[in-house]
Design brief:
With 144 residues, the protein is an all-alpha fold. 76% of the residues lie in helices and 0% in strands. It has a single domain, classed as Four Helix Bundle (Hemerythrin (Met), subunit A), CATH 1.20.120.
């Protein structure tokens, strides 16, 4: 643990896991939505890796919230709000985290009802949100 009290090795390992999951998703994501909807087990793997990446994002948020004693959250929204109020993340990133959380809940709880076309669009356009989050957290860790 660093002087600031953050379990930085744990956070960095989670960032690495996010990067690994994103690489697998990008390497297996086809160029066309028509191909994506027919991928079968590969598509399932893409969804699972995306789920893992989102869970790692929220694990990082929870570690920072706990290590900085920002308060006992009753929900993930509380954790995000605590990090935003402390200036660890900005409003743009907190909005992106909430969108990730909603998508994860669809993947986890209503897997058979995922609209593959919408999911494909999100995968094509929103994977950079993970990289933005990782960059911000790396910068924060250097500041502490």
């Amino acid at each position: 643990m660093k002087k600031g009290g953050i379990r930085d090795a744990l956070v960095y390992s989670k960032i690495t896991e996010i990067d690994e999951s994103l690489k697998i998703v990008k390497d297996n994501l086809p160029d066309e939505v028509e191909e994506f909807v027919t991928l079968g087990i590969v598509k399932d793997g893409i969804y699972k890796r995306l789920e893992y990446a989102i869970e790692d994002v929220f694990d990082i948020c929870h570690v920072i919230n706990a290590d900085l004693s920002l308060g006992i959250p009753s929900s993930e929204e509380d954790v995000i709000e605590n990090l935003r109020n402390r200036g660890i993340i900005d409003s743009d990133i907190s909005d992106k985290l909430m969108a990730m959380r909603r998508f994860r809940n669809i993947v986890v709880h209503r897997y058979g009802k995922i609209d593959d076309r919408i999911a494909f669009s999100l995968l094509e356009n929103e994977l950079g949100d993970f990289e933005l989050f990782n960059e911000r957290i790396r910068a924060f860790l250097k500041e502490t």
